[in-house]
Task: inverse folding
C-alpha cells in the first residue's frame, strides 16, 4: 500500500518522529500529505529531497507540509488491490446491541442501537476481528409487570398498549403491579406464568421479524431472566463492595446506585454484573462493546467501576458506545407515553413513502443514524432521508445502482484499451481502505458514511461528463474504474449495514 510505503520511507530518515500520512484536504494538494517535517522540526525541503519512493511521481513542499502525488500506475494498482489494515487481527470481540424489551414496543432507540451496533460489527470484521453479535433483552422487571397487569385489565390490548396502560396506572395500582413483578421472578402463580410465557413468545417472534428487515442476525441472546439470579448472588456475596442501606444494597462509586432494592430484587445494575460474568463464560472475548443511548453513560461508568472491583483482571475489557436521541418536531420520544413514533412504525411509514421498497427505507433510516458521530442527537426529516439529491442513503444506493447498470450495459459492448487521464474518481478510490481502518479504530461508522457520500457525488459528476460506452465500444480502463466504484460502494454500504440494491 502506497501510504505504508511513504511512511516507511519517512521513518527510515526520522525513526523517532511521531508523524502522520493522510489524505490532503483537496486533490490539488496531492494524494497523500505528511506533517513529518513539522513534528520533527526538520527543514521540509531537505526532507522532501531525501525521499525517493517508487510510485510517487512528484513530491511538493507547501509550508511545513509535504504532499505526494502518485503515478497513474500506482493509483491503478491501489484500486485493483485494496488492502484494509487488519487492526483487530486475532481479536475476539463481542458486540451487544439493539436490546429491546419484550412486552414493549421496538422504539427508536432500539433502531439507532441496531444501526450503530451492526455497522460497528461489520467494521470490526473487515479489520480482522472475530465478531460475536449479541442481544440482551429485558424479559423481567417492572415493565413486564406493568404490561401483564394492563393485559389482565384489558385483554384486547396489544402488549405495547398494555405496557403503556400499566405504566400510566402504576401509581394508583402500585401494590398489585409490584406483586405481579415478584411473582414473575419466583414463578409462584400459574396464571401469571401462562400469560407471561404467551407475551414473551409473541414479543420475541415479532422482534425477529424486525431484525430480518434490518439485516441483522444475532449469534447470542441474553435475557434478564437469566442474569437476575446471577447478579443478585454477586451482590449478596460481596458485602465489602455493596453496602446495606435501608434494606437495599448499594454501591458507592462515581454515583451511589442501588444494586438490590428493598424488596430484595436485583436492579438493572446487578443484572448487568450477572450479564458480564455470563458473557465471559460463553465467549472468551478480548473485549466487549455495548451500544445504548447516551442517557446511560453515567450508569455504565458505575457498573464498570463495580465490575472492576469484582474482577480487576477484566478492567478495560468492557466498553460502552453511546448514541444520541432521534428527535422529530414533537421533541424527545419515550415508550412510556402513548401515541409515539416507534422504530417499527417509522420503518413502515418510510417503506410506504419509498413505494414499498423496504431496502430503500432501511437505507434511509440507517444513513441518517450513521452520518454523524454516534453520540450526537439527530433531527429526522423523512422527506430528506429519502431524497436522491445527496446526503441520504438512497443517494448512495442510487449511485451503486447506476454503476451496476453501466456494467450490465457494457456486457454487450466491444471492449477496447483506450487510454485516459487519471481522474479525481480514481484518486478518491484509493483512500477507501484507510477510511475503513480509521472508522474501525475509532468505532465510528460516520467516517465511512461521509466517504461514500463523497464517492457517490464524484462518481455522479464523472458519469455526467465521461462517455464510457461510445458507438457500441467501451474503454477497458474506464470499465474497470466503474467496476471498482461499484465494488467500493457495495462494500461500503455493507459495512454500514445498508442494502445495496441492484435497481431502484
Result:
Amino acid at each position: 500500500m502506497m501510504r505504508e510505503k511513504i511512511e516507511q520511507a519517512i521513518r527510515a530518515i526520522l525513526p523517532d518522529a511521531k508523524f502522520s500520512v493522510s489524505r490532503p484536504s483537496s486533490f490539488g494538494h496531492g494524494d497523500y500529505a505528511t506533517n513529518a517535517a513539522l513534528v520533527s522540526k526538520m527543514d521540509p525541503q531537505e526532507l522532501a529531497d531525501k525521499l525517493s519512493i517508487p510510485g510517487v511521481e512528484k513530491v511538493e513542499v507547501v509550508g511545513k507540509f509535504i504532499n505526494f502525488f502518485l503515478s497513474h500506475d500506482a493509483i491503478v494498482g491501489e484500486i485493483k488491490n485494496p488492502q484494509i489494515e487488519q487492526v483487530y487481527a486475532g481479536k475476539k470481540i463481542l458486540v451487544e446491541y439493539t436490546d429491546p424489551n419484550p412486552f414493549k414496543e421496538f422504539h427508536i432507540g432500539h433502531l439507532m442501537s441496531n444501526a450503530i451496533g451492526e455497522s460497528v460489527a461489520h467494521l470490526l470484521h473487515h479489520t480482522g476481528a472475530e465478531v460475536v453479535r449479541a442481544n440482551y433483552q429485558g424479559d423481567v422487571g417492572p415493565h413486564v409487570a406493568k404490561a401483564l397487569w394492563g393485559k389482565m385489565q384489558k385483554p384486547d390490548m396489544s402488549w405495547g398498549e398494555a405496557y403503556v396502560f400499566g405504566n400510566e396506572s402504576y401509581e394508583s395500582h402500585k401494590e398489585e403491579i409490584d406483586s405481579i413483578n415478584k411473582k414473575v421472578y419466583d414463578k409462584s402463580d400459574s396464571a401469571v406464568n401462562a400469560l407471561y410465557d404467551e407475551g414473551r413468545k409473541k414479543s420475541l417472534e415479532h422482534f425477529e421479524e424486525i431484525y430480518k428487515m434490518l439485516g441483522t442476525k444475532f449469534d447470542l441472546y441474553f435475557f434478564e431472566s437469566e442474569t437476575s439470579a446471577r447478579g443478585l448472588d454477586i451482590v449478596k456475596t460481596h458485602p465489602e463492595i455493596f453496602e446495606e442501606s435501608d434494606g437495599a444494597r448499594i454501591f458507592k462509586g462515581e454515583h451511589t446506585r442501588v444494586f438490590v432494592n428493598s424488596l430484595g430484587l436485583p436492579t438493572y445494575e446487578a443484572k448487568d454484573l450477572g450479564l458480564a460474568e455470563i458473557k465471559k463464560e460463553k465467549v472468551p472475548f478480548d473485549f466487549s462493546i455495548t451500544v445504548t443511548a447516551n442517557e446511560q453513560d453515567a450508569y455504565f461508568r458505575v457498573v464498570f467501576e463495580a465490575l472492576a472491583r469484582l474482577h480487576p483482571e477484566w478492567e478495560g475489557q468492557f466498553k460502552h458506545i453511546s448514541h444520541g436521541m432521534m428527535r422529530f418536531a414533537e421533541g424527545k420520544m419515550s415508550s412510556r407515553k402513548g401515541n409515539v413514533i416507534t422504530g417499527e412504525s417509522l420503518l413502515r411509514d418510510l417503506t410506504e413513502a419509498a413505494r414499498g421498497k423496504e431496502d430503500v427505507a432501511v437505507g434511509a433510516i440507517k444513513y441518517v443514524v450513521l452520518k454523524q458521530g454516534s453520540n450526537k442527537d439527530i433531527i429526522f426529516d423523512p422527506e430528506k432521508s429519502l431524497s436522491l439529491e445527496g446526503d441520504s442513503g438512497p443517494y448512495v444506493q442510487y449511485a451503486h445502482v447506476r454503476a451496476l447498470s453501466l456494467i450490465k450495459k457494457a456486457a454487450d459492448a466491444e471492449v477496447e484499451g483506450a487510454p485516459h487521464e487519471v481522474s479525481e474518481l480514481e484518486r478518491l478510490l484509493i483512500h477507501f481502505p484507510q477510511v475503513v481502518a480509521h472508522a474501525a479504530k475509532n468505532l465510528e461508522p460516520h467516517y465511512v458514511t461521509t466517504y461514500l457520500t463523497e464517492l457517490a457525488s464524484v462518481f455522479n459528476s464523472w458519469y455526467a461528463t465521461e462517455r464510457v460506452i461510445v458507438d457500441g465500444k467501451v474503454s477497458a480502463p474506464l470499465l474497470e474504474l466503474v467496476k471498482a466504484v461499484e465494488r467500493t460502494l457495495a462494500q461500503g454500504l455493507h459495512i454500514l449495514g445498508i442494502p445495496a440494491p441492484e435497481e431502484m
